[in-house]
UniProtKB/TrEMBL annotation:
Keyword terms: Transferase
Alphabetized GO MF terms: transferase activity
Domain 4'-phosphopantetheinyl transferase N-terminal: 23-85
Originating species: Pelomonas margarita
SUPFAM superfamilies, per the entry: 4'-phosphopantetheinyl transferase (SSF56214)
InterPro entries referenced in this protein's UniProt entry, alphabetically: 4-PPantetheinyl_Trfase_dom_sf, 4PPT_N, P-Pant_transferase_sf
Top-level taxon: Bacteria
Keyword S-adenosyl-L-methionine found: no
Entry protein name: 4'-phosphopantetheinyl transferase family protein
Length: 200
């Protein structure tokens, strides 16, 4: 985040408006860092200049990249992740376990009861969030109540964990990790493949 600085002139008008709507400085920093990381990854993938990418924001706050690119941004506590794809859907979700978060009410809200432990909850929750981000026609996570997942090496979703950080990815192929764009980046394991049993 320090490398990005406080200058937001490179953000699009829609991004600046969303940035201005955040009350806390930390949330604003997360937003700016995620947008810059998305541009860095798009530049790495396409060979273009990071500043040449004009990113928009849809009504649900999802990142919209210029065609043929698609991008998904997620953050949790101090972690930020970005996924990009060309001519295919993409969704990424990060969730960090916290002793201050009671996951049980969230499991009830998401229709995930009975959910025996936190690992089960975070697996279903991150997969559902990533599925939501990969499908712009879905406008609310509540529409995914009861969505279940079964192991499937072919995807279209992959989920894993690094310490207390849980991640899930939805796409047309398993994720390929890029961890040299910023210092202290993670290199997660490939993760378990999953497919939805009853998509909304």
């Amino acid at each position: 985040m320090a490398a990005v600085g406080d200058d937001t002139a490179w953000l699009t008008q829609a991004e600046r408006e969303r940035w201005a709507g955040f009350a806390g400085a930390a949330r604003r920093q997360q937003f700016v860092a995620g947008r810059w990381l998305a541009r860095l990854l798009l530049a790495r993938t396409s060979g273009a200049n990071p500043a040449s990418f004009s990113l928009a924001v849809d009504a649900e706050g999802r990142c919209i990249a210029p065609p043929p690119w698609r991008a998904s941004i997620s953050h949790s506590v101090g972690w930020i992740g970005v996924a990009v794809a060309r001519d295919s859907r993409v969704g990424l979700d990060l969730q960090t376990e916290s002793v201050r978060r009671d996951w049980r009410p969230l499991a009830v809200f998401a229709g995930l009861e009975p959910c025996p432990d936190a690992a089960c909850f975070y697996r279903h929750w991150t997969l559902a969030e990533a599925w939501l981000k990969a499908h712009p026609d879905i406008t609310s996570l509540s529409t995914l109540r009861g969505l279940r997942w079964q192991p499937d090496a072919a995807g279209p979703a992959w989920q894993g964990q690094v310490g207390e950080l849980h991640w899930a990815f939805v796409g047309d192929a398993a994720p390929e990790w890029v961890n040299d764009l910023l210092p202290e980046s993670l290199q997660p394991a490939p993760g378990q493949g999953w497919s939805p049993i009853r998509p909304a």
